[in-house]
Amino acid sequence: MNNTAAIILAAGSGTRMKAGQNKLFLELNGKAVLEYTVAAFQRSRAVDAIVIVAKAEELERVQAMIPQQLYDKIIAYTAGGKERQDSVLCGLRVLQAQGQYDKVMIHDGARPFVTDALLEDLLAQLMPGMGTIAGVPAKDTMKRVNAEGIVLETPVRSELWNIQTPQCFYTNEILSCYERALEEGYSGTDDASLAEKYGLSVRVVPAYYENIKLTTPEDLDVAEVFLKRLHME
């Protein structure tokens, strides 16, 4: 039975990108960022279904840009919520209603360079009670500072990872975490933070530095380089 779905979050903004529009509509080599992201999941052997979560006012534009006729793994386009956490819950509830996808990958639409190999690695290490998340070792020395900018401590760099998406879980387990967070008014920084709070273990799966999240104008220049390096034109 087909059992792995991807929730792709497309309800972003262009604030830090200074784009004046949803940054996922910006183009790289004549193709929207969101198209690259969805295409990666469409061609992956690890993924059976896709749910795209977008702003209610942008749903029609997203459907026109990423039509089911071309991306037949898409099972739903759904409106998101005010915050990322709300949008993920909207996507999880769509999967709950479908009732057949017991594994889910949650991915930021602004990370267009996800590879099939990474998706397969995340799924291979997924277990009941333990989610898997993409990440890379921190390159820089990190400091914990107070509100006045005074250093409080220097964590051991070898223990620090920069966390990315996808983040992969059993659907019912992460949905339960999201429902409990809603009931308690808890806000996490990513999907894994909710999993950690509500009793799931989380394993970091080594990813790659090219799996960047496009956030600022400079990222678009970097993305052009990565596009050629990963042969995704």
The structural domain count equals 1
The order of strands across the largest sheet is 5-4-1-6-10-7-11
Q: Output the number of helix runs.
A: 7
Q: Which topology does CATH recognise? A: Spore Coat Polysaccharide Biosynthesis Protein SpsA, Chain A
What's the pLDDT, averaged over the residues? 93
Order of helix and strand elements from N to C terminus? EEEHEHEHEHEEEEHHEH
Helix content: 25-40%
Structural class: alpha/beta
Which architecture name does CATH use?
A: Alpha-Beta Complex
Q: How large is the share of residues in beta strands?
A: 15-25%
The CATH class assignment is Alpha Beta
In summary, what is this structure?
With 233 residues, the protein is of the alpha/beta class. It is built from seven helices and eleven strands. Helix 2 (59-65) links the parallel strand 4 (49-54) and strand 5 (74-79).
In terms of topology, how is this protein built?
Layout: E1 4-9, E2 27-28, E3 31-32, H1 33-43, E4 49-54, H2 59-65, E5 74-79, H3 84-98, E6 103-108, H4 116-124, E7 130-137, E8 144-145, E9 151-153, E10 161-170, H5 171-184, H6 191-197, E11 201-206, H7 217-229
Parallel strand pairs: 1-4, 1-6, 4-5, 7-11
Antiparallel strand pairs: 2-3, 6-10, 7-10, 8-9
Helix pairs in contact: 3-5, 5-6
List keywords for this structure.
11 strands; globular; seven-stranded mixed β-sheet; two-stranded antiparallel ribbon; 7 helices; about 230 residues; Spore Coat Polysaccharide Biosynthesis Protein SpsA, Chain A; alpha/beta
Describe this structure in words.
The protein is 33% helix and 24% strand. The longest helix has 15 residues, at 84-98. Helix 3 (84-98) crosses helix 5 (171-184) and helix 5 (171-184) crosses helix 6. The chain is built from seven helices and eleven strands. The mean pLDDT is 93. The protein has a seven-stranded mixed beta sheet with strand order 5-4-1-6-10-7-11, with helices on both faces. The chain has a two-stranded antiparallel ribbon with strand order 2-3. A two-stranded antiparallel sheet has the order 8-9. It has helices at 33-43, 59-65, 84-98, 116-124, 171-184, 191-197, 217-229, and strands at 4-9, 27-28, 31-32, 49-54, 74-79, 103-108, 130-137, 144-145, 151-153, 161-170, 201-206.
